[in-house]
Predict the 3D structure of the following.
Amino acid sequence: MVDIKSWIFKDCCLVFSLLCISIVGITTGDQEVLTNSWLVELSEGGEAAARDIAKRAGFSYVSPVLGSDTEFHFIHNAVPKTRFRRSILHTRKLKSHPFVKRAVQQTGFVRSKRGYKPLKGVLLSDLHINNPEIGQLINDEKDVVIGKDPTDPLFDKEWFLKNRGQSGGIKGLDLNVEAAWGMGFTGKGVTTAIMDDGIDYLHEDLKYNYNSEASYDFSSNDHFPYPRYTDTWFNSHGTRCAGEIAAARDNDVCGVGVAYDSKVAGLRMLDQPFMTDLIEANAMGHMPNIIDIYSASWGPTDDGKTVDGPRNLTMRAIVKGVNEGRNGKGNIYVWASGDGGQEDDCNCDGYAASMWTISINSATNDGQTAGYDESCSSTLASTFSNGKSTIRDAGVATTDLYNNCTTTHSGTSAAAPEAAGIFALALEANRNLTWRDMQHLTVLTSKRNRLFDPYLKHFWQYNGAGLEFNHLFGYGVLDAGAMVYMANHWKPLPERFHCTAGSIKKEMNFGTNEPITLTIDTDACKGTDNEVNFLEHLQAFVTVKSSYRGNIVMHLTSPMNTTSMILSQRPNDDEHKNGFTRWPFMTTHTWAEAPRGTWTLRVENIAGKNNEYDDGLFREWTLVLHGTRDPPYHHQDADEENQTKLFKVKRMHDMAMKN
Ligand SMILES: *[C@@H]1O[C@H](CO)[C@@H](O)[C@H](O)[C@H]1NC(C)=O
Ligand SMILES: *[C@@H]1O[C@H](CO)[C@@H](O)[C@H](O)[C@H]1NC(C)=O
Ligand SMILES: *[C@@H]1O[C@H](CO)[C@@H](O)[C@H](O)[C@H]1NC(C)=O
Ligand SMILES: *[C@@H]1O[C@H](CO)[C@@H](O)[C@H](O)[C@H]1NC(C)=O
Ligand SMILES: *[C@@H]1O[C@H](CO)[C@@H](O)[C@H](O)[C@H]1NC(C)=O
Ligand SMILES: [Ca+2]
Ligand SMILES: [Ca+2]
């Protein structure tokens, strides 16, 4: 078990040790990889002792871990960065010192950039235009002319900022940033960290918006996160993401960022053979009172068969950031939902599926999902990634390495920074917003607009609180204008509580096409300190395995009859030994619903490619509700015309409270 006593969590872990152990379910490859990094915990002596112990044992002292005065990061320069055996002698040498409580050589694991994948979209002209999903497209196009357009040479190609129908897109299908700029919000005073492969901070379009104080290179332990040169420009990822957020305006260089007066910090951490828990944790916990938003466009490999997430230290870093960062308001972690396409499910990616990250999917300039888009019930909203594959420069236009520009940035990689930029605008509008406020604002102001599933599998639905959602897009496309307007008028939310609604522990078999259905009746902790009457996140911790893990599919239905597909079929996941161990499947689809009543979980094995019979074994389901006791929007001002969703849900909640 994680040592809960050592951390003080406002969110969750205080009450439920369960929430902190998502790492138990990780299934790693066959051979363990070790690195030259050690986590060293001391019983006394602090940093001075750590430096001394490192020196005596032949290590280099690197830094404290997450600001701790008992845990430290050491590296050993004579140990290769990657090896396949534990360095037992080195560990023993450290442990021989009486102050050393624990010395753990860090294992290495793979974290991949969400990179470019060819787009396999469906052409709008190939679809039956009279199908109900497309036929009902809302005509909410507005020609808002607010101020002047930026004069930057690539602005015309930035259809995601202002879609005039260029590059074959749909007019008005964009992030509505001009409305936010028109209200005077451009990101001033807000810093977003790009956790990636570095930033070309000498770039003409970035250098004035670069926050060097908050930047760090975790791959080589210095203050200069400049990308490492390769012939293929492989390390252009971070620079491209940075430009989407903070490329300067009206300077005749490239395009303009979503929050063009905000600052970006570079946290170079992706560029080494293997990732370690220490590097991830240090990056995600770097300067949490100076960095407001952390943007990540990477994660476990998108091969459709990986089930992986944050390890112990990284989990601690995220929870600490959310509870203590931004001087207690909480850091905003923005996550790309993944590029594994239809054959993957981002609920198997513990970073994207976390309650503490805002996971963002992408859409193309004509409202479809891109072929690489990975969906799951934990996705909160969407931004944009690609234009049509037939149009060469319809990708995301942004800054590129070595003072260049590009018009072909893509993937959910491109989507997450756009969201980070919009959150920067919202934070300028209201510095008091907490990490929860940001999620509420996202739910309440994102729009269906013209987003649709080209494969006609996932339709738009209303949940029990009257909020429209889609399995692919969450609550829809972010709307900067609406978000900033609401942020500006936002009142603090009521306190958040956590309720274990119930748990079923029983071994049950389920074969192919022989589903099992389980129910939990809950009073949602009524009358206790943890009473939850209005949901935010919902987690289902499930232990289940199958002779072909990828064929397990699970649906969860709420008392208000909203069904979330918490696990979809993953045809390439042939794992058959471990399955999922108390894995936290998360859904956002039941947001603002009343959780009291009967929850139903349906677990099944879907027939795979070969139509073989698979044996499934269910062991455990624990349902955890997160949300408020008091109606969340009771104190918010809402007018029916401009804040329809908020108005509707607020009225519904107030009525429910009266009954
Ligand atoms: C991480 O936590 C798990 C339990 O959740 C524990 O078994 C393991 O020893 C921890 N790993 C490290 C490296 O501390
Ligand atoms: C990058 O810029 C250089 C010179 O400014 C130019 O020669 C080169 O073609 C550019 N590369 C790309 C991929 O645009
Ligand atoms: C932020 O909070 C402070 C202190 O509670 C308050 O004085 C201030 O008006 C708030 N600002 C906004 C924009 O809500
Ligand atoms: C619940 O929703 C499903 C569709 O998702 C519908 O078929 C069913 O009739 C609904 N049940 C109730 C009791 O409303
Ligand atoms: C809606 O917003 C517009 C533009 O900000 C404003 O002119 C209008 O008065 C608002 N309507 C209401 C009912 O507040
Ligand atoms: Ca520019
Ligand atoms: Ca994935």
Q: What stands out?
A: Residues 34-107 form a domain with the Alpha-Beta Plaits fold (CATH 3.30.70.850).
